Amino acid sequence: MARSVDAVLFDIDETLVDLQAAMGTTLQAVSAEDLAHFTAADWDAYTSLFAADPQGHYDAYLAGHLSFADQRVLRLQHARERAGLAPLDSDAARAWNDAYEQILPRHFCAFDDVVPLLDALDERGIAYGAVSNNVHDYQRAKLDAAGLERLRVLVGIDTVGAAKPDPAIFHEGARLVGSLPARTAYVGDNLIVDAIGAHDAGLTGVWLDREDNPSPVRGDNTAVPAGVFTVGTLMEVLGLL
Fold first, then answer.
1. CA distance 137 to 168
2. Contact assessment for residue 212 and residue 36, using Cβ atoms and an 8 Å cutoff
């Protein structure tokens, strides 16, 4: 059922920016010699595991238990272990992370449906912005690298000292786009953290479950509750406004 809103807020990674594709390209560039024996299927499995982070290292970063670099290296070490590879020693891991950080931003790209949706929102006079579970400046650079400078409102975990699904971070996004939570939709690829989190914070929660590029954090084992909407593409969001 359509619900009128004044603003739309977006998650960034796997919603606006195809981070998993950028990760995959970067992983291959950084480790091409070390993993020269990998087949295409090996690379897909390796990238998917690195992106999905089943051991929760990124959550540990959000909780303040790990640095951003440490969570990335731990995810790498787990992917290497599952692939039957020896772990990197501390010096090699540091060099790997430095190379990864330099290469990754070159491959940030927006999904094909992002600009058409933003154009449509502009035509309708609906404000928009982004709320992300990473720090503001890092995500600001990512949006700009992906050609999404037009998203001027951006709330990071350092903006209010909270991470999704804490209501405070959603409410700050609504405030900055000039809307009330009840008049704001939030769209993200993580069912629990994004869609259900936004819904519980009083926004309209929308789960982006891309049909052709499923997120590594789909939330398959969680039922979609009443009041949370599901779309397969960003353009389907227009039908909810």
1. 19
2. no
- If you write DSSP's letter for every residue of 148-207 in order, what string do you get? -TT---EE-HHHHT--TTSHHHHHHHHHHTT--GGGEEEEES-IIIIIIHHHHTTSEEEE
Domain boundaries defined on the chain: 7-18+109-240, 19-107
Mean pLDDT of the 17-38 span = 89
d(CA 212, CA 25): 18
- The domain made up of 7-18+109-240 has a fold known as Rossmann fold (3.40.50)
In contact, 3 and 204? CB cutoff 8 Å:
yes
Question: Residue 117 is which amino acid?
Answer: L
Q: pLDDT tens across 131-151, in order?
A: 999 999 999 999 999 999 999
pLDDT of 212 over the 70 cut: yes
Asked if 180 and 160 touch (Cβ cutoff 8 Å), the reply is no
Q: Which two tokens stand for residue 145?
A: 């690298």
